[in-house]
Write a structure and sequence with these properties.
Elements: E1 3-12, E2 15-25, E3 30-34, H1 41-49, E4 56-61, E5 64-65, H2 71-76, E6 79-82, H3 94-101, H4 109-115, H5 117-121, H6 132-145, E7 150-154, H7 162-175, E8 181-185, H8 189-195, E9 198-203, E10 206-212, H9 213-217, H10 220-227
Parallel strand pairs: 3-8, 3-9, 6-7, 7-8
Antiparallel strand pairs: 1-2, 1-4, 4-5, 9-10
Helix pairs in contact: 3-6, 7-8
Bound molecules: adenosine-5'-triphosphate.
Adenosine-5'-triphosphate binds near residues 15, 35 and 40.
Length: about 230
C-alpha cells in the first residue's frame, strides 16, 4: 500500500476537524476526496503534508510513519501538495519557478513543458501575468519536479473555465500511468470522476462512503447525500 491512513484526528486549537479518518491508496492509483464545504477535506490533505499536526492516528507512506514529521521531512520522503489557490511566485517567470523547483529524478523542466505546452509558450511570463489555468499548471509542474510518489491536489479546478478544467483532467488522468499516487480534493464532480479510480466521501471529518469512481457516478442517492447536487 502506498498510503495508509488510520484513525486520523487533527484540528485547530480546541476545534477538532478530523474525527478518525481512514483511507488507503495503492501505488499508481488516484482517489477523489469529496464532501460538502467545511467537512475537513483540506485539513485532511494538510495533515498528510504535515501542514496541520495530527493529534492522533497514523499516516504511513509505503510503510513509513509520517505522522509527527515536519513538512520538509515529509516532502523529502516523496509527498508534494498543490495547494488550493495555487500560490505561484508572482515575480518569478515560469522558467525561473520551474528551475528552482528542480530536484534529481525523472521529472525535468522539459517534461513539464511537454505535458503542459501552454507553460512552454509562457516560459518568459511572470507568475502574476498568467491566467488561473496557467498558474494551476505551474503549481502542478512545480510539484512534479519534486518527483513525488504521492501527489496531493487541493481543488485544482477552482476558478477555471470549463475548457481548462477539461485540459487539466486529461493531464491528471495521464499522471496515473507514471505510477504516481494521487489524492484529489475536488468540488467538480466531473473532473473528479475523470481523474480518480476511487471516491471517498467525507462527512464531519470521517470517511463514511467509498466506491469505485464508476460506481459512485451511477449512485445518484450517494451523490445527493454527500455532495448535495444532482440526485
Ligand atoms: N487555519 C484554520 N484555523 C481554524 N479553523 C480552520 C482553519 N482551516 C479550516 N478551519 C475550519 O476547519 C473546518 C474544516 O475546514 P476544511 O477547509 O478542512 O474543509 P473543506 O472540506 O476543505 O472545505 P472547503 O471545501 O470549504 O475548502 C471548517 O470549519 C473550517 O472553518
Amino acid at each position: 500500500m502506498m498510503l495508509t491512513v488510520q484513525n486520523l484526528t487533527a484540528g485547530y486549537g480546541t476545534a477538532q476537524v478530523l474525527h478518525g479518518a481512514d483511507l488507503t491508496l495503492d501505488q499508481g492509483r488516484a482517489v477523489a476526496v469529496l464532501g460538502r464545504n467545511g467537512v475537513g477535506k483540506t485539513t485532511f490533505v494538510h495533515a498528510l503534508m504535515g501542514l496541520v499536526r495530527p493529534s492522533s492516528g497514523s499516516i504511513r507512506l509505503a510503510g513509513r510513519e509520517l505522522s509527527g514529521l515536519d513538512t520538509r521531512r515529509i516532502a523529502r520522503l516523496g509527498v508534494r501538495i498543490v495547494p488550493q489557490g495555487r500560490r505561484v511566485f508572482r515575480s518569478l517567470t515560469v522558467a525561473e519557478t520551474l528551475e528552482i523547483s528542480r530536484s534529481p529524478g525523472e521529472w525535468t523542466v522539459e517534461r513539464v513543458y511537454q505535458i503542459f505546452p501552454a507553460l512552454a509558450a509562457r516560459r518568459r511570463h511572470r507568475g502574476d501575468q498568467l491566467s488561473g489555468g496557467e498558474q494551476e499548471m505551474l503549481a502542478i509542474g512545480r510539484a512534479l519536479l519534486g518527483n513525488p510518489r504521492l501527489l496531493l491536489l487541493d481543488e485544482p479546478s477552482e476558478g477555471l473555465a470549463p475548457r481548462l478544467v477539461e485540459e487539466l483532467g486529461v493531464v491528471l488522468a495521464g499522471l496515473r500511468a507514471t505510477g504516481i499516487s494521487v489524492v484529489l480534493v475536488e468540488q467538480n464532480l466531473r473532473l473528479a470522476l475523470e481523474v480518480a479510480d476511487e471516491v471517498r466521501c467525507m462527512v464531519k471529518g470521517r470517511f463514511v462512503y467509498g466506491a469505485a469512481a464508476g460506481e459512485f457516478a451511477g449512485d445518484g442517492a450517494a451523490i445527493a447525500a454527500y455532495l448535495g447536487v444532482g440526485s
